[in-house]
Amino acid sequence: MTTRTVDRTQELATFLRTRRERLDPRDFGLPRRRQSRRTPGLRREEVAELAGVSTDYIVRLEQARGLRPSVTVLEALARAMRLAPDERDYLFDLAQQRPRTADRPATTATASLSGLVDDLSPLPVLLLNHRYDILSWNAEMVRLLVDFDTLPPSERNLVRLCLLHPQISRSYPDREKVLRDGIANLRTAWAAHPDDPELNHLIVEFIADVEDFARLWADPEVRHQGRGRKVMHHPEVGVISLDFEMLVPMQNPDQRLLIFRAADDEGRAALERLRSR
């Protein structure tokens, strides 16, 4: 039986096309054409001219014809299409032109980091790998989300829980944004680890079985979201606004700490009530 994987060449083609189509010709001072534009954004020949490559090269890239652009070409394309830093990194990852992190992702928590998760109490903390598998957690995170010990190890994945766990998926008033952000982060992680079979399997499974995931995956957003704010509705203490930080240890770059803090006085009071329970 052949294991299905996400097609990196096709993803590169889709990413380049969608980024070209979102560009506004007026931002580039391009002359108006006599004929009307039948498609949004810049034409392929305009991107080719801005990047200093041939139109045929752009066509072949967007048709997923197996090209592997050089670093020089990728830099030129990133400048021509005015990619944001996260998008530029994603482009380099898709083309396999960025240094890789560890090939074997952590499946268990490093002892020192697991101890740090506990030491960061009373802040709710998770330790994750690049697949967003949950490796370690503290009591405060259990009270905030779910008792991870009650879940089979195969279900201890943050994206899976946000998609499919009844309690967690209902806890976000703006679930669409939470899912969109999470999938954009997962796409970025996949581009950095395209040969990780379990990550590929996870994405293929979600595309096939989870309608929301398939819909949002089709829109190639990419993002390294290291900090932000989430609003949750907790069944015991009501609405909580939380700021989060994602920290990557220098000696264990394949692991990351997700730390939550109350965003306001009401959030601090809500977390205190959870701790007292």
Automatic annotation (TrEMBL):
Pfam family, one: HTH_31
Recorded superkingdom: Bacteria
InterPro entries: Cro/C1-type_HTH (IPR001387), Lambda_DNA-bd_dom_sf (IPR010982), MLTR_LBD (IPR041413)
Domain HTH cro/C1-type: 41-88
SMART domains membership: HTH_XRE
Protein name in the entry: Helix-turn-helix transcriptional regulator
Taxon lineage: Bacteria, Bacillati, Actinomycetota, Actinomycetes, Kineosporiales
